[in-house]
Design goal:
It is a single chain. This protein is an alpha/beta fold. It has a domain of 146 residues: P-loop containing nucleotide triphosphate hydrolases (Rossmann fold, 3-Layer(aba) Sandwich), CATH 3.40.50.300. The chain is built from seven helices and ten strands. A hairpin with a 6-residue loop joins strand 9 and strand 10. The model has no long low-confidence stretch (mean pLDDT 95). It binds adenosine-5'-diphosphate and magnesium ion. The site of adenosine-5'-diphosphate (ADP) has 13 residues, from strand 1, strand 2 and helix 1.
């Protein structure tokens, strides 16, 4: 399988007033093309730190991240990031927020508009293209955020607990939507969550992280066939994976 990204001995130690905090032990793994991989672990184990290093928002204390063989050295449009809180410009409409991400790519205004509308249609927001973020629900804002990163076709989509702030029902709707969009787009995704069911439903592969300093303690392939509808969330297959993953994650929470 093609490796789109390689994490080679990536570690991170933060200097704080109380001394050094080692957030990440040296971590090594590869991400494959068209595969949905999730980093699963308890709060504080270093998931966001690892994602921020991949995004180029944080520098590693050792090691490196390579994307298509090129060393990450700051943010770039080969990697798209979706955060938990909505990072939309409040004064721009949904379409304008997507168009903004396409500036500087040599596209005409009309081309940017067309791509923005196409991406909003994919996430079911075509009727809300002209709405401002304040007029949209939390789930809708996250959908604009997803449309925005997909619009410039990153090699990797990085998602840091993107549905963590949503209510349970909206969260399930977003998981379904992301699965549907991903199954038709098939790009390399690195998703972060502490929610075990969410990880199983969405992923082809789950990397379980240990407690801080985070390292990869398990690499689990999720063989549930696609397309995956919402019925997967209550399927025996999911429950089986949940049992072993819960034990693995819980062992860390108690460690
Ligand atoms: N800027 C920082 N300065 C000091 N410590 C930090 C900083 N960012 C994260 N940490 C610490 O590193 C550890 C991992 O944090 P984080 O990657 O946010 O975990 P997670 O996303 O898995 O909850 C935590 O103990 C956290 O307190
Ligand atoms: Mg985090």
């Amino acid at each position: 399988m093609n490796a789109v990204a390689e994490f080679a001995n990536v570690s991170k130690t933060f200097a704080t007033k109380k001394g050094e905090v080692q957030a990440l032990a040296p971590v090594s793994f590869q991400l494959h093309a068209d595969e949905f991989t999730t980093l699963l672990g308890t709060s504080g184990c270093g998931k966001s730190t690892l994602l921020h290093i991949a995004a180029g928002l944080e520098t590693a204390s050792s090691g490196e991240v390579l994307v298509d063989g090129v060393r990450v050295d700051g943010p770039g449009r080969d990697r798209g990031m979706v955060f938990q809180s909505y990072s939309l410009f409040p004064w721009l409409t949904a379409a304008e927020n997507v168009e903004f991400a396409l500036k500087g790519l040599g596209l005409s205004r009309a081309e940017r508009r067309e791509i923005a509308h196409e991406q909003l249609r994919l996430v079911g927001l075509e009727k809300f293209a002209d709405a401002k973020p304040a007029e949209l629900s939390g789930g809708m804002r996250q959908r604009v955020g997803i449309a925005r990163v997909l619009s410039y076709r990153p090699k990797i989509l990085l998602m840091d607990e993107p549905f963590g702030a949503l209510d349970a029902q909206t969260r399930i709707e977003m998981q379904e939507l992301l699965t549907e969009v991903w199954e038709s787009h098939r790009l390399c995704v690195l998703f972060v969550t502490h929610d075990i069911e969410e990880a199983i439903y969405l992923s082809d592969r789950i990397l379980v992280m240990s407690a801080r300093p985070g390292r990869i303690k398990d690499d689990v392939r999720i063989e549930i066939p696609r397309p995956r509808g919402p019925e997967v969330l209550t399927s025996p297959a999911l429950m089986e994976y949940k049992e072993s993953l819960t034990a693995s994650v819980r062992a860390e929470a108690l460690a």
